[in-house]
Amino acid sequence: MVKVELCNYNGWEDCVKISNDRIEVIATTKIGPRVLRFAFPGEDNIFYENSSQKGLTGGEEWRIYGGHRLWHGPQIGFRPNEPDNEAISYVLLEDGVILTGNREDKSGMRKQITLRIPSDETEVEVIHSITNQSVWPVELTAWALSVMAGGGLALWPNTKLDTGFLPNHALVSWPYTNLEDSRFRIHQNYMSLRQDSSGKDWFKVGSSNVEGWAVYLLNNTVFIKEYDHLVGAAYSDMGSSFEIYTDIDIIELESLSPLTRLEPGQLIQHKETWKLFHTDDKELDTQRAWNIINNVIAD
């Protein structure tokens, strides 16, 4: 049975908690749209929480807060860093909530996140929507960013797409990306990135992740992020449908929709599915972790 209720969380009133007997999700209505928590009941949050920004609202400063957020890309000029520090509207559903942000002053976009959970699974359906409420057409991508708690390991696949003699995969870097960074490794069938509090440099790569999934392991908890990669569609950032970033505090798992031209009044949607499960091993190395995850995804 799914339960939807209002609660206080981390200094914010009127948060929406969605739960069944196995998982819980908490989103704030005082800023955002933001999803603050995804966890097994009584266990640690898989998402990052910025302790110095708990309960804050208002102001012109952009804040990371933590949790999961929605941006629109590509990251040009002010996009997508308009602050989301004001209260939003929401509609409670029998199995979730619709969170609708305010119209952004500079871009004219309005963001919405819809969360739903089934009655007996450890997963969440997350639908991201961006509506063009400006007076001109805009080409953009819906950009879904999950900020994960530090100290874990991320894995994502190298594609198995058979393209004959043509390339089948893109690996994209940024000016600050050091591909010799010890936190990052390229394996035969997958890539991996560790969040390390001693790694002071920023690191980011993008990928044409045709399989459409990535995972994050923290202690004995595994977070799975799934989305649809559309083969042949145009993606921003040199063809990236998946991007991953880390610094001294966080690691972000980011999925992107294809680039879409939105006329005034039109919207774009981008769906993710989140899943949680436990492993019996709190000290997984990358190869054992890959074997476990690959079997789960295959099922």
Silhouette? globular
Radius of gyration: 18 Å
Total of domains:
1
Class by SSE composition: mainly beta
Mean pLDDT: 94
**The first-level CATH class name:** Mainly Beta
Strand composition percent: 35-45%
Q: In CATH terms, what is the fold-level topology? A: Beta-galactosidase, Chain A, domain 5
* CATH-scheme architecture: Distorted Sandwich
Low-confidence stretches: none
Tell me the major beta sheet: 11 strands, antiparallel
- Spell the H/E element sequence: EEEEEEEEEEEEEEEEEHEEEEH
Instruction: Count the beta strands.
Output: 21
Estimate percent helicity: under 10%
What does this structure look like?
This protein has 299 residues and is mainly beta. It has a single domain (3-298), classed as Beta-galactosidase, Chain A, domain 5, CATH 2.70.98.10. It has 2 helices and 21 strands. Strands 1, 2, 3, 4, 5, 10, 12, 15, 18, 19 and 20 form an 11-stranded antiparallel sheet that branches. The chain has a 10-stranded antiparallel sheet with strand order 6-7-8-9-21-17-16-11-14-13, covered by helices on one side. The two termini are 25 Å apart.
What order do the helices and strands come in, and which of them pair?
Layout: E1 3-9, E2 12-19, E3 24-28, E4 34-39, E5 67-73, E6 89-92, E7 96-100, E8 109-116, E9 123-132, E10 138-148, E11 153-157, E12 171-173, E13 184-186, E14 190-194, E15 203-207, E16 213-218, E17 221-227, H1 236-239, E18 242-246, E19 251-256, E20 260-262, E21 267-278, H2 286-298
Antiparallel strand pairs: 1-2, 2-3, 3-4, 4-5, 5-10, 6-7, 7-8, 8-9, 9-21, 10-19, 10-20, 11-14, 11-16, 12-15, 13-14, 15-18, 16-17, 17-21, 18-19
